Amino acid sequence: MYTQDPIFWRAGAIAASAFMCVVLAALTIDTLQQITPGGAHVPPYDVINRSIGYQYDSARGEYVPKIGGEELIFGHRYTAAEASDLIARGKLVIQSRACIDCHTFFGNGAYYAPDLTRAWMDPFWARYDGPKRADRLTKFLMHPIRLGARPMPDLHIQRDEAEATVAYLKWISGVDANGFPDRFGAPAPAAGGK
Amino acid sequence: MYRSQRLGLKYLVASTAMFGAMIVFGLLSSFYYVHPTLLLNVFNFNSAKIVHIDGLVIWLLMGFIGSIYWFLPQELEREVEGIGLAELLFWVFCAAVAVVVLVFIFVQYGSANERSMWLINQGRKYVEAPRWAAVGITAVAVVFAYNVIATTLKGRKPTGIVIVLIADLVPLVVLYLDAFPEMANMSQDLFWWWWLVHLWVEATWEVLIGCIMAWTLMHLVDASRRVVESWLYVEVALVLGTGILGLGHHYFWIGTPRYWLAIGGFFSALEPLPLLGMVVHAVYDAGERRLRAANRPAFYWAMAEAFGNFLGAGVWGFMMTLPQVNLYAHGTQWTASHGHFAFWGAYGCGLISVLYLVLAKTRGCEDLDGSTWKWSFALLNAGMLGMAGALLVAGIDQAFFERAIGGSTWDAFLAMQGRPWFREGMWARVAFGLLFACGYVVLVYDLAAISKTREPRVERATAAAGS
Q1: Segment holding A166, helix H or strand E
Q2: What percent of chain B has pLDDT over 70?
Q3: Considering the entire predicted model, what is its pTM?
Q4: Do A149 and B414 touch (CB under 8 A)?
Q5: Containing H/E element for B149?
Q6: How many angstroms separate the CA of residue A10 from the nearest CA in chain B?
């Protein structure tokens, strides 16, 4: 019987793998266009000059970032090129300090510390000391304090590094991640917890 | 014994040592969860975790490479081409791993500049190794692929297993090149990063361990080559047929288009199929042999591989893979539960089976048995099941209360750390981790005892020929 011949199954293995590779290649081309800064899902880097919120979209049935009017950080209006350089530097800070080995971005990383996808708009900053949100985040990164069960270590982050990281966190909070995380910042239902 | 097999043994010894290092740093990482100020600003959690997860990758890679260097010359009935270069690179590989571990422990991190990326830490999960080390790993992988391909070309007609192996090694090496780039855009960075992590772990590594287990079963229970090769092709068709687009379950929430929710959900729901096939076949084989084999530890670990892979990768993965569940489960201890169980079932158990098989063949004692291996088998598997269970309890608690109800803020995360189910889960993980570590100690003791008490087959044969 032909099914007892390994050659039959080899043909199946080659066909299945080749077909899926072609489909993946086509989807990759489309996806890369949509996740380029300024694409359908990822905001341009100079979005750091504008306000970013997170609201429920009833048409889509999920939470999505809402880009608003001008809201500068560090009192500076960044050009597209300046914003791009600042974001690249912020990413380098994140990699050099291995942030993703304690935290997560879009839920990817380590689960020891909070997710940073929407850290820019976390309600926590309203209680933190400092003139504006960007200044509060900068101060925290340079001189971290203990937050409940999680002490953030002092990673010797310099001011320019901290500001670039804050810009990065603001930019990434504007990425449309298909509703992740759900209900971020929404008030908890009354009967929560054990 | 071929020189390649001697090299294979060295790799397997180094791999077992890395397994131990991975456990030590895994235990240390688990202690931070129950004592968060542990070594704060001296040796932070992320440094311990990096050595733990990178140790896992190196343990498994060295194990795969060692197994293949051991099986390949027997399969092709000739010495491996370029074996001198391969032997040299083994020492380069070991030295590089040692230096990188020392840098991770004593330097830890640098400033935001290219020098840090090249010399200290690239800060991308699983591929934190600085670029100079990534260049070294690429060189080892290229030489390894050359060894396999050149030996096959010079040998007699290639077997089906070797053809699958070669077809798998090419993407394996090419995908690793993704360990180098540094992209500002996190969505793009993670998009390509998952090509490396998913297409290694859930595609090319699965095929690699499939080849290794095919050889193992042929040596262990005299399985027919025709049947083994047919199954290997079926496995490749199912693993790559579902796993390539199963990549989509990592593209739900990284800023990628919505169609990935449907594609990733559908194909990753099918991913357990090849693993179920392995369990069906394992049950059939075990029943036919009434659980008897000359080399009992290797046989039991091969069975554990089939069941562990199905449960850890298949069932645990399916549990959290549909986007409606994943929206809340993703990035919690639930993911960690799946990760621990899947790596153990899919790869760890298989490599331990190879260790016992290779040891028996090398020492000329086909009828391996005793009571020590049973202790390590029980302790390691009970330890892993306990860790996976503990992390699952903590992770489900997190998914419901921190994510679905709490709304995923920092306050919700911090409140979660104090919840009883979460804290109990973390303590239980430490306890079962210690049990797992005991199992490792017994395993190493057993392997060392077998090595010492039995004469190597080659030396015995040489002595007989000389007398």
Answers
A1: helix A159-172
A2: 97
A3: 0.94
A4: yes
A5: helix B131-154
A6: 5
